[in-house]
Write a structure and sequence with these properties.
By secondary structure, the chain is an alpha/beta fold. The protein contains 13 helices and ten strands. It has helices at residues 6-18, 21-26, 32-38, 46-55, 62-65, 78-81, 151-159, 178-189, 203-206, 213-221, 240-251, 270-283, 306-319; strands spanning 105-107, 110-111, 117-121, 165-169, 196-200, 225-230, 255-261, 286-291, 327-330, 339-340. It has a ten-stranded mixed β-sheet. It starts with 5 loop residues before the first helix and ends with a strand.
Length: 342
């Protein structure tokens, strides 16, 4: 039975006109049945989606849903968020902490894997739950929540003069209120040897009305050089409000990079990857990394063989200028940097 998509489109329009990202977040779809009804998906999707959402909850903003093709279970944006029964499969080599976050923890909420930079897990909350998430099993409940809880991390950062860059990750740092971000930015800017603030976020892609004038003001007020690393996997994501949000970030003078994950059935074709790079470059966003899938429990069905990934990069080199070809890498726990796969 066809489902009227008017409410979905109307919500997207309200989010754009009101620019109230909190309302957009509050109205995100969290019920697998609602997702299936809104997109007129086959009934065979319903029970598996319910079961898999019990393992890792569903969250997807309505403006992101509006970029999907109705009645198409293979839509590349839908496949990133639709819970599947295969998430319950146990596959050798797929573990809960595939990137070694646990062994890199210096203080509550503070990780360090690489020389010269450290990472703060600023929040466990996201606006979207990507089904391939490398932190879907992360123990966020053990990390700081109140500002006072961050004092050990701030002290550790201040005591290590080898650090030049601090990375805010999560979860998604942009899901924090402006007031909380301002406190974090102020404290970090007060650490003299830090010179760069890097923020890893998916919100400009999936909840673009979060990119407000006030947020841009906060990012450009403090002395730390802001670098925003967004996460888009498919060219269909870079449209409408999302494209405008990226233009605003780039237009403010910030460095904006994109990192993608190579995902089976989503972007494992030269056409998709080339179109993504073209759209990013046209907006002033640098295609930074193409990650080999982190082998996290519940994500094995997304994995693309490394040799196929190498062939895709070679094809991108034939089609695109060098600056539009991302580095194909894998994260290996304990290594001093990402491992190039080409």
């Amino acid at each position: 039975m066809a489902v009227n998509r008017a409410p979905l489109i109307a919500r997207s329009e309200v989010c754009s006109s009101g620019n109230d990202w909190r309302r957009s977040l509050a109205n995100a779809v969290r019920d697998p049945d609602e997702l299936i009804d809104l997109l007129d998906l086959p009934e065979t999707c319903r029970l598996p989606a319910r079961q898999a959402a019990g393992l890792f909850p569903l969250i997807v903003p309505r403006s992101y849903l509006a970029r999907m093709q109705p009645a198409d279970p293979q839509d590349p944006l839908l496949r990133q968020v639709l819970p599947l029964e295969r998430e319950g499969d146990h596959r050798p080599g797929f573990i809960t902490d595939a990137v070694g976050d646990g062994q890199s923890r210096r203080e509550p909420g503070l990780l360090q894997k690489y020389q010269g930079r450290a990472l703060m897990v600023a929040t466990g909350a996201c606006a979207i739950h990507c089904r391939y998430c490398f932190r879907r099993h992360y123990p966020y409940g053990d990390e700081p929540r109140r500002i006072d809880d961050w004092e050990p991390a701030f002290r550790a950062l201040a005591a290590d003069s080898s650090l030049r860059e601090i990375i805010l990750s999560g979860g998604d740092p942009f899901i924090l209120a402006d007031a909380r971000l301002e406190v974090l930015f102020h404290r970090l800017a007060g650490i003299e040897h830090l010179s760069r603030l890097r923020i890893h976020t998916r919100l400009p892609i999936v909840l673009p009305d979060r990119i407000t004038d006030e947020l841009i003001r906060l990012l450009t007020t403090y002395r730390l050089r802001p670098i925003v690393v967004v996460h888009a996997n498919h060219p269909h994501e870079i449209a409408g409000e999302c494209a405008e949000a990226l233009r605003r970030l780039v237009g403010s003078g910030m460095t904006v990079l994109n990192q993608s994950v190579l995902l089976r059935g989503i972007n494992d074709s030269a056409d998709a990857l080339a179109a993504l790079s073209e759209r990013l470059i046209d907006l002033g966003v640098v295609p930074y990394y193409l990650h080999q899938l982190d082998r996290v429990a519940g994500t094995a069905h997304f994995e693309v063989p490394v040799e196929q990934g190498r062939l895709l990069i070679e094809e991108l080199r034939r089609r695109l200028p060098g600056y539009a070809v991302p580095s194909y890498v894998r994260e290996v726990p304990g290594e001093p940097h990402k491992i190039p796969l080409v």
